[in-house]
């Protein structure tokens, strides 16, 4: 259960520290002009880094001047990446990083892979950095290079390899791109860009009818033993790292053609707009449902076991607004029961009977993103034995998934899979049947 409503303070402090960790120190840049520009633009670069830190990526993304490293190694190496470089004689803001999403080589063509990484990673980064530095007259463009992964089969063996996408946008085109309101306007801006996939020029089209296959992008599991370095794109030589090589070397690895074209499914829904989760916005949401909240508290007690000192309140979680309901759960389980089993039982025995009743007070569309059930789980103890330490479990459920569950179109497991579960503040995966049967997730 969240005991403080000032949770945003450490998040802001963390974001500020993360911004410093992403920006290359001027002393690491060998080019005197670029070093001076880096020094004079540090405040703008930190704002850009903070904006990127607020972006949501479908899979883990790390800033890095070294591409094609496995995720375990990536967590340990230098993650300073935002710096000024030269590209074809132009002064550009350069950003490089590793994206741990993997595409099926059989179902994603070169163009589809490039387009997906552009939409999922490069475009959000440009939207974050361009407004922060576009007023700087010395910045002539932006160069973003991202390494993603491709999985497939060669001679009957499953393999996974890295692939580099590099996008260069002149300043005027980048400004048009981030201001574009539709795909057609974005495409017009992209006509001025240069795009390379593994050093090969590529035309990137956002307006064609071909849609990416659904559920064929996975989190990369590439490890050190299976790393196969790909050729790098022609983006930027990292002059600040004496061990690095220019990114314009190498030849691309061949990609197996798709022997069986896959019928295009319906396009995925557009991403949810960024929610205003400022204290003022959350306070306004709180005021808008205060009457409903009070009515719900009165009618659902004592079944719900609401915590009296923590009334329903809106909180920010992963850049979205959730209505947090704090409850207490008591289970007839002995001391030493697995935390996963306790979390699963708290959902099945206590929370699931409440879900539809809570939703009856919040019908239709709401001006927030989901509901969080924050419960403190207590286990029964025998007389004369010491009480066990309570377990904190938080369930974050998106409203769309809750309505799916409400209408019996989704199971409780599907609802949990669509949301986020925290046990004592740490995110976990929770499989109800196996957790309740074996006590493990």
Task: Give an overview in words.
By secondary structure, this protein is of the alpha+beta class. The chain has 2 domains: 8-226, no CATH class; 279-438, no CATH class. It is built from 13 helices and 14 strands. The chain has helices at residues 8-22, 32-40, 42-53, 71-74, 110-133, 171-179, 183-190, 279-288, 290-300, 339-359, 399-406, 412-418, 432-438; strands spanning 61-63, 83-87, 90-104, 141-154, 157-170, 194-197, 200-201, 217-219, 313-317, 320-331, 370-379, 391-398, 420-423, 426-428. The strands form 2 sheets. Strands 1, 2, 3, 4, 5, 6, 7 and 8 form an 8-stranded mixed β-sheet that branches. Strands 9-10-11-12-13-14 form a 6-stranded mixed β-sheet. A hairpin with a 2-residue loop joins β4 and β5 (157-170). α6 (171-179) packs antiparallel against α7 (183-190) and α11 packs antiparallel against α12 (412-418). The radius of gyration is 25 Å and the shape is elongated. The two termini are 21 Å apart.
Quick rundown:
The radius of gyration is 25 Å and the shape is elongated. Helix content is 33%, strand content 23%.
Protein topology:
Elements: H1 8-22, H2 32-40, H3 42-53, E1 61-63, H4 71-74, E2 83-87, E3 90-104, H5 110-133, E4 141-154, E5 157-170, H6 171-179, H7 183-190, E6 194-197, E7 200-201, E8 217-219, H8 279-288, H9 290-300, E9 313-317, E10 320-331, H10 339-359, E11 370-379, E12 391-398, H11 399-406, H12 412-418, E13 420-423, E14 426-428, H13 432-438
Parallel strand pairs: 3-4, 10-11
Antiparallel strand pairs: 1-3, 2-3, 3-8, 4-5, 5-6, 6-7, 9-10, 11-12, 12-13, 13-14
């Amino acid at each position: 259960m969240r005991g403080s409503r000032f949770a945003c303070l450490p998040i802001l402090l963390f974001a500020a520290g993360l911004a410093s960790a992403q920006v290359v120190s001027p002393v690491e840049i060998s080019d005197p002009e670029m070093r001076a520009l880096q020094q004079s633009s540090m405040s703008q670069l930190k704002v850009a880094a903070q904006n990127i830190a607020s972006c949501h990526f479908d899979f883990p993304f790390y800033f890095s001047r070294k591409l094609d490293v496995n995720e375990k190694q990536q967590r340990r190496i230098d993650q300073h990446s935002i710096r000024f470089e030269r590209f074809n004689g132009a002064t550009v803001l350069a950003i490089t990083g590793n994206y741990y999403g993997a595409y099926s080589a059989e179902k994603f063509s070169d163009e589809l892979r490039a387009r997906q990484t552009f939409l999922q990673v490069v475009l959000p980064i440009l939207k974050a950095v361009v407004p922060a530095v576009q007023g700087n007259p010395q910045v002539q463009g932006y160069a973003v290079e991202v390494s993603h992964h491709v999985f497939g089969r060669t001679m009957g063996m499953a393999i996974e390899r890295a692939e580099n996408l590099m996008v260069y946008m002149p300043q005027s085109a980048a400004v048009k791109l981030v201001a574009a309101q539709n795909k057609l306007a974005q495409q017009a801006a992209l006509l001025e860009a240069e795009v390379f996939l593994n050093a090969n020029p590529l035309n990137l089209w956002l307006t064609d009818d071909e849609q990416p296959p659904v559920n064929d992008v996975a989190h990369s599991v590439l490890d050190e033993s299976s790393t196969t370095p790909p050729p790098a794109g022609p983006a930027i030589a990292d002059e600040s790292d004496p061990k690095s090589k220019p990114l314009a070397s190498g030849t691309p690895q061949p990609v197996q053609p798709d022997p069986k074209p896959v019928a295009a499914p319906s396009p995925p829904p557009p991403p949810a707009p960024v929610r205003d989760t400022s204290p003022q916005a959350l306070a306004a949401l709180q005021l808008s449902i205060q009457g409903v909240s009070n009515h719900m508290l009165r009618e659902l007690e004592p079944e719900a076991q609401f915590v009296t000192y923590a009334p329903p309140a809106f909180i920010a979680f992963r850049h979205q607004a959730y209505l947090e309901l704090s409850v207490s759960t008591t289970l007839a389980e002995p001391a030493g029961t697995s935390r996963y089993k306790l979390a699963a039982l708290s959902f099945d025995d206590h929370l699931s009977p409440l879900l539809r009743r809570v939703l009856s007070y919040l019908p239709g569309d709401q001006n927030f993103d989901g509901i969080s059930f924050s419960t403190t789980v207590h286990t029964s103890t025998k007389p004369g034995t010491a009480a066990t330490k309570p377990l904190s479990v938080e369930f974050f459920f998106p409203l769309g998934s809750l309505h799916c569950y409400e209408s019996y179109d989704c199971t409780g497991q599907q609802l949990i899979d669509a949301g986020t579960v925290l046990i004592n503040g740490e995110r976990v995966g929770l499989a109800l049947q196996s957790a309740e049967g074996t006590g493990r997730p």
